[in-house]
Amino acid sequence: MSVILDGKALSRKIREEIKKEVENFTSKGFRAPSLAVILVGEDPASKVYVNNKRKACEKVGIKSLFYHLSENTEEEKLLGLIYELNTNEEVDGILVQLPLPKHIDQTKVILSINPEKDVDGFHPENMGKLVGQIEDGFIPCTPLGIDILLKHYGIEVQGKDVVIVGAGFIVGRPLSLLMLWRNATVTVCHIYTKDLKKHTLQADILISATGVPYLIKEDMVKDGAVVVDVGISKVNGKIVGDVDFEKVKEKAYAITPVPGGVGPMTVTALLINTLKAYKRKFSHLSSTINP
Ligand code: NAD
Known about the structure:
The protein is an alpha/beta fold. The protein has 10 helices and 11 strands.
């Protein structure tokens, strides 16, 4: 029986600390931190994610400004809104929920966000800081959440063989850079990887971020490995991950559940990044949270 890496419980603890820190600022007369959230269209999963993020903000005292634009919004209109938010002193973070409708150029939108407010960490300036191990950038939320979760449970990354399955822009790629930053030996697998099992069996820490339900079976996992499941899929109305949890948990030293593992940590990392953006403006204020 393995250790369950409980992202929900850890998130509760960190969010409590964030709440106290925000209260500490506002009690001194500073305005509350604020996050602008933009959703374009009616994608049901995106609506759920945006709702969760906004609720989490409100609970810790971060003001969330919500901009819900219709599916057929013109790119220029979205860029105009981002420009306004970029220059609004009262806005600390800007989050554009992805994916965007096909007629909008996602790269152009990401490039238009002020890197100082890019709390998702997708702007090339922040991605570049991740490559360069420059502390003052924003690390994308899912990789940051995983890093904090591993650290909390005392899982050493340095010198370990970390195998990441999935090379997506939001999770796999930035996570591979963060794990290199933490001095792991990193392998990144993807849909064109020839023999996936050969790689996953080498992993001291196996992280799967593909969105393919039950891709990772017990015979693909080394005894005593740490398994992190990023995937979120719906199978017969139930949320499941990339990992065959029930069987793999018997073999792993530690494992994240889905739901309740990486998901809440991703939202917590967003709160951490928003607070970081806010504190830059009030840099003379002391901080207790320093991920
Ligand atoms: P993506 O589509 O950008 O990337 C998927 C990656 O998986 C690609 O590199 C692809 O080559 C690889 N892949 C697909 N099938 C594969 C297979 N059979 N074998 C090996 N590799 C395979 O997706 P993404 O945005 O990185 O998201 C991945 C998953 O993580 C999704 O389920 C998404 O919902 C989930 N996600 C979860 C959180 C969270 O907070 N828990 C956050 C972001 C994304």
